[in-house]
């Protein structure tokens, strides 16, 4: 039995594993410039979005080079998966497991995204962000 939550986070190639977050962000930016980032799940292999099996949330962190701690950039919840009073997958509303946001930094570092599947747990991906 794992003793640390970090031991529960899985990684894989998003091109073959439908649970891995996909980070779409520039590789370089100028210090202090706004960077637009989109994080999605299931680009190459679609992830289900049903009442029974869905991505519940994703969270994004940034770790600047040389800093001791990571910064919590944002958490995005996906709360509608076809639930309704008529039963599972009978509702009219679904949310897509994709989020876009902007942030700025004065240091190069690494963007980390963690997603949570209600059936298969925690998944992580990361991408470097260099300063031009």
Q: Which structural class should the secondary elements be placed in?
A: mainly beta
Q: What is the CATH superfamily label?
A: SOR catalytic domain
Indicate the radius of gyration in whole angstroms.
16 Å
Helix content: under 10%
Please, how many domains?
Answer: 1
Residues in β-strands, percent: 35-45%
Note down, in words, how this protein is organized.
This protein has 132 residues and is an all-beta fold. It has one domain: Immunoglobulin-like (Sandwich), CATH 2.60.40.730. Helices cover 0% and strands 42% of the residues. It is built from no helices and eight strands. It has strands at residues 21-24, 28-29, 35-41, 55-64, 71-77, 98-103, 109-117, 121-131. Strands 2-8-7-4-5 form a five-stranded mixed beta sheet, with no helix packed on it. It is globular, with a radius of gyration of 16 Å. The model has no long low-confidence stretch (mean pLDDT 95).
Structure described in brief:
With 132 residues, the protein is mainly β. It contains no helices and eight strands.
Q: Secondary-structure blueprint of this entry?
A:
Elements: E1 21-24, E2 28-29, E3 35-41, E4 55-64, E5 71-77, E6 98-103, E7 109-117, E8 121-131
Parallel strand pairs: 2-8
Antiparallel strand pairs: 1-3, 3-6, 4-5, 4-7, 7-8
Can you give keywords for this protein?
5-stranded mixed beta sheet, Immunoglobulin-like, 3-stranded antiparallel beta sheet, mainly beta, 132 residues
